[in-house]
Write a structure and sequence with these properties.
This protein is α/β, with parallel strands linked by helices and 405 residues long. Helices cover 45% and strands 12% of the residues. It is built from 18 helices and 12 strands. The strands form 2 sheets. The chain has a 9-stranded mixed β-sheet, sandwiched between helices. α12 (282-292) links the parallel β8 (271-274) and β9. This is DNA-protecting protein DprA.
Length: 405
C-alpha cells in the first residue's frame, strides 16, 4: 500500500540538487552512524565538504570505519541503484506536502536535536509546523481492550485541545486511537512510522494515514520503499520518544514494545506516565512495572497537562470541552446497527453480570461462579449487554465492561 495518493496541502521547499544528493548519500551510507556523521558535519560544515575530505582527515575527526563509509561508492538503497533512488526521492519530494528535511533545515524538529544521535535526514508529509509543537506521545498495546482504546482517544483529544501535538506510531490498537483522538482535538497528531514514507503499514490504516497526511504530519527516517521490518520499530520508538516532552503508556503487557519507548524516553530525560489498571489484567502489568520504576501515575488528562505546566483551570477547560464532544466507545465486535440500541434497559441477570465484571476482564467460568447463573442465562445476559453497548467480547473468551459516556 503506497501513500502516493495521500492528500497533502503544502508545497515542498526548493531543493538544491547537489546538496540534497550529498545528504542522501551520507544519510543512507552503510556503516555510518548518525552520531559520527553529526561529528563530521560539525567539523567540516556540510555534506559536500565532508565528501571532499581525505580519509585521514575524516578518520581523525571520527574513526576509520566512518571514513570508509563516507568514501565508499554509493550502494543500492532498498534494492534501487543509487542514481535511480536519487531521482525517485526528488520526484517524491516535488509532490505537494512531501518534504525531505536535513539537520541543516530550520524545519527539522527541534526536539530531536536534543538527542545525541538525531537522524541526519527525515522524510515528512503534511503540516511541518506540527514538528515544532510541544508534544506528548501516547503509545500502548496493539491488542488493547475497548476501555484502553477509549482512554487513549479521550486523553489524546483533551491533550490536543489544550495545545499539545500527540505523537504515536500508527500501529493497531492504542496508537491508532491516540491519532484519532488527537485529530478530533485542536492541535493534531504526528505519526512516526517504521517504513518508508511512501508506504502505509498496517494496510488497514490507509484511511487513517490519509487523514493524518492531510490534517497532521507523518515522519520517517527510513528510505523510500522500506517495508515493515521488526528490527526497524524499536528505532522508530526512539524517534517517538525524542519528539515528545513526555510519553504516556495506556496499556502494555510485560513484553510490550511500548516499554522500549518508555525506557528510551527516560534515558532522554523525558517524563514517563502510565495509566494503572486491574492487577488481574495482563495489559496492566507493563504499566504497573513502569509505575514501580518511577513513572508518574495518571488517572485523568489533567494529570498530564499539569506536569507539562498547564494551569489546573486550562487543563479542566480542555477536558470539559473534549468530554462534551466524546463519542460513545465502540468495540469492533459490535455491529454498528446494534450500537444504536445502547440505551436499552437491561434485566436483572444482565445487571448481575455487569456487577460481576467489575473493572477487569473475566471468562465465562469466572462470571458463572460470581453470578450463579447457568450457561443459557449467562449467555443471554452477555448478549443483551453486548447489544446495549455495556460489554465487549475480547480474545480468549473473555468479556470486559465498557465505560459509558
Amino acid at each position: 500500500m503506497t501513500t502516493a495518493d495521500l492528500p497533502t496541502g503544502e508545497a515542498a521547499p526548493t531543493l538544491d540538487a547537489d546538496e540534497l544528493r550529498a545528504w542522501l548519500r551520507l544519510a543512507h551510507a552503510k556503516g555510518l552512524r548518525p552520531l559520527a556523521l553529526r561529528t563530521l558535519l560539525g567539523a567540516f560544515g556540510g555534506p559536500l565538504e565532508v565528501l571532499s575530505e581525505s580519509f585521514a582527515s575524516l578518520a581523525e575527526i571520527a574513526d576509520a570505519r566512518a571514513a570508509e563509509a563516507v568514501l565508499a561508492p554509493p550502494e543500492e538503497i532498498e534494492g534501487v541503484p543509487f542514481d535511480d533512488y536519487i531521482e525517485a526521492a526528488f520526484a517524491w519530494a516535488s509532490e505537494p506536502g512531501n518534504h525531505i528535511l536535513t539537520l541543516a533545515d530550520a524545519t527539522y524538529p527541534r526536539a530531536l536535536l536534543t538527542m545525541p544521535d538525531p537522524p541526519p535526514l527525515l522524510y515528512a508529509k503534511g503540516r511541518l509546523e506540527l514538528l515544532q509543537a510541544r508534544a506528548v506521545a501516547i503509545v500502548g498495546s496493539r491488542h488493547a481492550s475497548p476501555q484502553g482504546l477509549e482512554d487513549a482517544r479521550r486523553f489524546a483529544r483533551v491533550l490536543s485541545d489544550a495545545g499539545l501535538a500527540v505523537v504515536s506510531g500508527l500501529a493497531l490498537g492504542i496508537d491508532a486511537s491516540a491519532h484519532r483522538g488527537a485529530l478530533e482535538g485542536a492541535t493534531g497528531t504526528v505519526s512516526v512510522i517504521g517504513t518508508g514514507a511512501d508506504l502505509v503499514y498496517p494496510a488497514a490504516h490507509h484511511t487513517l494515514a490519509h487523514e493524518i497526511a492531510r490534517e497532521g504530519a507523518m515522519l520517517s527516517e527510513w528510505p523510500l520503499g522500506t517495508p515493515a521490518r521488526s528490527a526497524n520499530f524499536p528505532q522508530r520508538n526512539r524517534l517517538i520518544a525524542g519528539m515528545s516532552g513526555g510519553v504516556l503508556i495506556v496499556e502494555a503487557a510485560m513484553r510490550s514494545g511500548s516499554l522500549i519507548t518508555a525506557r528510551l524516553a527516560n534515558e532522554m530525560g523525558r517524563d514517563v506516565f502510565a495509566i494503572p489498571g486491574s492487577i488481574h489484567a495482563p495489559l496492566s502489568q507493563g504499566c504497573h512495572r513502569l509505575l514501580k520504576q518511577g513513572a508518574k501515575l495518571v488517572e485523568t488528562p489533567e494529570d498530564v497537562l499539569e506536569e507539562f505546566g498547564f494551569s489546573p483551570a486550562t487543563a479542566r477547560a480542555a477536558s470539559t470541552a473534549a468530554r462534551r464532544a466524546r463519542p460513545r466507545p465502540v468495540s469492533a465486535s459490535w455491529a454498528s446497527a446494534r450500537a444504536d440500541e445502547a440505551d436499552n434497559a437491561i434485566d436483572g441477570d444482565a445487571s448481575r453480570v455487569l456487577d460481576a465484571l467489575g473493572h477487569a476482564p473475566a471468562t465465562l467460568e469466572i462470571l458463572a461462579m460470581r453470578t450463579d447463573l447457568d450457561g443459557a442465562a449467562l449467555q443471554g445476559a452477555l448478549l443483551q449487554l453486548e447489544l446495549s453497548g455495556r460489554v465487549a467480547a475480547l480474545a480468549g473468551g473473555r468479556y470486559t465492561a465498557v465505560e459509558r459516556s
